[in-house]
Amino acid sequence: MAVFDWLIRMVAVLAMIALLAGLAAHRAVAEETAPQKITIAEVTDFHGHIEQARWVNDQLIKAREYNPGGMVAVSDGDLVGGSPYESSREKDRPTLDIAKTWGLTVSAMGNHELDRGVSDFNGRIASRSNGIDWLAANVRKTERFSNLKDYTIRVIAGKRVAFVGAVTDRLSSVLSHSVMRNVTLDESAVESVNRVADRLSDGDERNGEADAVVALIHDDADLVAKDRVGLNANVDLVYAGHTHAVKTDRRTASGAPIIEAGCFGRYVAVQDLLISGSGRQAQVSVRNSFGGALIDDSPANDDPAKVVNAAQTTYSSSAAVDSIVRKADAEARRAGDVVVSSVKQRYDKTEDAGQTALNTLIANAALDGARRTTEGANARVGFVNPGSLRTQALDLDGDGFVTVREVHDMMALQFDNAVITLNGIQLRQAIAQQWHRDEQGRWRSGHLGISSNVTYRMDLTGDDPRVVDLRVDGRPIDDAQSITVAGNTFLLTGGDGYTAFEQGTGYADTAVPYAQTLITFLKAHD
């Protein structure tokens, strides 16, 4: 009987062990198949707006608190370049230092990262000491781009997330010719991302493998969505940029979200990747972390990240960000709050009269600046493209004085003043190229800035705009006459679609920053 009882007890124990083992195995299977959450926080087109750095930093902290150990901060390009004076006067060193404090380690290369040339990008901006992997799969990797990659992988919570970058296909239209000579685009942005995403999803561990692929494409969200090739199903999430737009409802053909998060640090996109399985067999879905695709800095909006308990949120890195901003601002005030000239108007480019006056003023300064150099001593006409002007008004605070900071903020792009010689036909073509027809067929002007010593009339009665009765300093210009013109390096190498300048001869960079030409001109004409 005793033996029988012992056997019964042993059977019960073994049954219990088997039950527990089955439960453990079931739990292990469940845990293995449960999606792993990876959070991506993205900014684009920050352009050195360090006045927004604290706000961006706070949103990144909230995203980290929301998913501890599972968040990656990334940029879609133009982190630097075209920046306000506080950052630009130090060649965006404050912005690069702030990005490191943010924990931002991945970025697509935008066009403005190349403002000071390829060597400056590769040796300074993309220096490994800054801690950022810069990505552009459609750019040929020469020795000049030794610090540029097609992609990078982050292993987070055991999942491999690949970030594949690409820069706009229209790079030649937004870079100076002198810079573009050192850049070759071998593929379109979309084709290059597909190529890398396919390789990372082919099941071959020898050539790299990822569990999820995030595309960082520095180009407009609509252009990416409507691309003739189209991003394929191996791309799980797309961030776009370049046009400073807010677009959150675009998708690839396979349903991957395409998100463009504005500019200047006013928005942060925060998304979750829910990843099950691995490699070629991985299943990935995307959701917005805080309800909407973007967090914005509008005070009228409720904080979409309020799911994070404020009492648990720490701001350990905020002091470091604040310190960098305060130091940069103090240096900018010391050097920038120096009055250049008094003015009788704001030169407000949002008003027709103000825009015309501003464009003429800067074109006059370009002409004057060129004449002060050996290369441009014979210049007769000055030009400026309105697209190169960044702020709303030259006298931004309306106090009747223009400061060094206000000039540099208006002319923040890193262009020099240059000269080129055109004949009469080419000069007319350049002026005419500011006119185009809108969708209703009406003529519209691009408001090209031309120095005040030039007069002409437009004939818009035909299919193409024609410049008639062109005069410089009151003298008629004939077709064969040679005229040396001045303008910034971007415009005179065909930028903003003004391709007539490319037909000229004797192009020369005066090596004088085009913002300095305005400072010198204003001082001389105060």
Spell out the key features of this protein.
alpha/beta, Purple Acid Phosphatase, chain A, domain 2, six-stranded mixed sheet, eight-stranded mixed sheet, 5'-nucleotidase
What would a concise description of this structure say?
It comes from Bifidobacterium margollesii. The protein has 526 residues and is α/β, with parallel strands linked by helices.
CATH top level of the largest domain is Alpha Beta
CATH architecture of the largest domain: 4-Layer Sandwich
* CATH topology-level fold name of the largest domain: Purple Acid Phosphatase, chain A, domain 2
- Percentage of residues in DSSP E strands: 25-35%
Q: Give the number of DSSP strands.
A: 26
Helix content: 25-40%
Low-confidence stretches: 25-31, 306-315
Tell me the count of domains.
Answer: 2
SS element count, helices: 14
Q: Describe the sheet with the most strands.
A: 8 strands, mixed
Radius of gyration over C-alpha positions, nearest whole angstrom? 28 Å
What average pLDDT do the residues reach? 91
CATH superfamily of the largest domain: Metallo-dependent phosphatases
Tell me the overall shape: elongated
